[in-house]
Specification:
288 residues, Rossmann fold, 7 strands, 18% strand
Amino acid sequence: MLQSQYKKIKEKFESNQHLWQEKYYRNDYESLTFQWRQDDCVSLCQKHLHANSRILDLGCGCGHASLTLAQLGYNVVGIDFCESMVKQAQRNAEIKNLQKNCTFKQADFVKDKLTLGSYDGIIALGFIEYFDDPITVLRNIHSLLSVQGIAVIQIWNRNTISDRVFSPLYANYQKLFNPIQIVKRMAKFILPKPVVEKFRKPVSLSADKYVYINVTHHRYTPSEFDIIAKKSGFKIIDVRVSHFLPYPFFFSDNRRIRWDKKLQTMAADNEFIKAQAYNYVAVLRKEL
């Protein structure tokens, strides 16, 4: 199956549309990681696509990447299977007066791919990780590209140093030293079991908070993604990376932002550092 978590994925984005809109206007570290991957995508499009190119934005969300590209002179079509996302993207286009060269529509990439047309470029940020079969997804993307077309695809990198070293440390820190976790452990011994079970029940969140829905994200190392691209008829010709510090420990947001920017600069000339970034944005050139 191409997307076994279809219903949960759709619910995740429909429930949190307002927060996805806000992420691109906030300056905290988590929000900036989404803005950085968008900036990398836009920069790569400018480098590899001529002006007035026709671009398809898969899983466009609230349309921020599409609108940025439209402001640069590209003709963009953004699609998303979430109605609330598409409506917000359309409102954003109206505010920026970009309806002429940037349109949005509700469409399902899996079900509607044969009617999407042909494009010089296709971008997909936070998209391929939700599919069970990345090769089929990339082959479908391949079929929608013109002869000289490129795809700019973002993956969530797997097996970084953060995964191997800092993730276990952070988990142990949370377990041993986080005051909330300590209180929870103490409550198990002090409070009656019915009381503990009552507090375990999920609490309905207000509209300004994130609605958590557990969805599996399929992650790939750069070398794994290179193989996937080749099997799909592509060659990776360029890469940008960001998001090196997913675990906060005792670091402030400002320090994480400052260090991440330094690592982004260093990664441009260092393959080892590049391979440690979570956001891996690659340009795939269509091979004939």
